[in-house]
Amino acid sequence: VDKRYRSQVAYCAEEDYHYASLTVRQTLDFAIQCKMPSSSVLEDRAGYKAEFLDALLDMYGLTGCADTIVGDSEIRGVSGGERKRVSIAEQMAAGASVDIWDGSTRGLDSSTALDYVRSLRITTDVLHKSTIASIYQASDDIYKLFDKVMVIDNGRQLYFGPINEAVAYFEALGVQKPLRQTSSDFLTGITQLNERRVAPGFEDRVPRSAEDFERVWQASAQRTLVSQQVAEFESQVQNDKRSTIIREFVDRTKMGAGSSSLRKRSRYSTTFLYQTAQLLQREMRVLWGSR
User: What is the pTM of this model?
Assistant: First the structure.
C-alpha cells in the first residue's frame, strides 16, 4: 500500500484545515483535480469534474453556499457544520478506498455530530468504502451507526468486534454498565478505576490494568474468531481474481500510466507537472481572494 497505493488511503485530521479565502466550490474543485483519472479511462475530464463537483455539492447540502468562502476563526465564511461537510466532501473527492477520520466531531453539537456520522455511513454504504473513525463522547445513536468497535488503552487492544457484543463482553469480565450510561462512555471508562463499576462477586477477578484486559482479550474466543476472519479474508484476497482486477484498474487510472511503466508503480494518481500546475493555479486563487 505504501509503495503503490497510498492514494487509496485518506486521513482527515481533527481540525478542519482549509484555505479560508477559497470558496467551497474552489476547494472541492482542487480536490477533484488532484485525483483526476488518466485520459485512457476518462475521455471527458471537464465533464467528469463538473458532474462530480455538482454531485458532491448536492449530496452534502452545500449547493446553497458553493460560492461562499470557507472562512476560519478570523474570516467569516460558511457555518461550522457546513465547514465540516466541506471536509467530508473533500475527502470523498479523493476517491480513496479507506477513509480515516480522527476525532472529526469535536466542536460539533450532538445533532450536527449525528448528521455528520450519518453522512459517513451513507458514503460508506454507497461507495463501498472502509471507514475508520474516532469519535468524542459518541451518543448511542452515533454508536449504532458503526459495524465494529475497537477499544484501545495505552496502545493495547482490549476488544475488537461487533458493536452489539462489546458491552456484553466486558460485563462477562465483571465490569457493570450503569443503566443510563451510553455504550461509548462505558467502553472508554473500562480501565478507569474511578469510573467503572465492578459487578458483585467479581471484586477479586475483574482485570484492573490495560495489560490485564489485553491478556484476557488475547486468550478469548472472540479474539480467536477475529483472527480466523482476518485469515479467511487474506486468503480470499490472494485467491480472488477481483483483487488483481482492481489493482490493474487503479494502475490504469494513474495519469501517464499508458506511456510509462514507472507511473504504474507510482503512489500518486497524477504526474508531478500536473500537480505543480494545479498548485500554482490554487495559489493564484488564494492570493486573489486574500486581497
Answer: 0.76
